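Retry 2 of 3 after timeout on previous attempt. Resubmitting structure tokens to design endpoint.
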């Protein structure tokens, strides 16, 4: 068994798609739009086969997203090396996104950084 995809509701669908494509090297499909419900989505595919669905529909509540909360905590992207973690973290910081930790080696041995990039959602960049 494998996880087929992870889905994330967002307010700004185009901005989220641009981030995952331009910064994290994903490939987007052409999108989907249900004209009856105004639901819209894109599937972003990554080189190892992982997929992320980003979605939007009108009038959704947008509750505050504390970093330490129950539920899904983050999405982690493996970039292959400590040097690439450092480079990508610097690039993301320079784009104006918040780096909340790292790059660092964690107590359980991961080399990572954590950023808040898409509407209060945390993304981990790791080896």
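Retry 2 succeeded. Sequence:
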């Amino acid at each position: 068994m494998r996880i087929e995809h992870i889905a994330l509701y967002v307010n700004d669908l185009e901005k989220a798609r641009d981030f995952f494509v331009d910064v994290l090297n994903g490939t987007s499909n052409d999108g989907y739009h249900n004209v009856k419900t105004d639901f819209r989505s894109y599937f972003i595919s990554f080189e190892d086969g992982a997929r992320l669905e980003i979605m939007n529909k009108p009038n959704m509540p947008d509750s505050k997203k504390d970093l330490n909360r129950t539920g899904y905590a983050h999405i982690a992207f493996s970039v292959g090396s400590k040097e690439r973690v450092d480079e990508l973290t610097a690039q993301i910081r320079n784009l104006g996104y918040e780096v909340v930790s790292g790059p660092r080696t964690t107590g359980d041995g991961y080399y990572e950084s954590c950023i808040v990039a898409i509407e209060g959602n945390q993304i981990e960049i790791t080896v």
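Attempt log closed. Helices lie at 13-23, 82-94.
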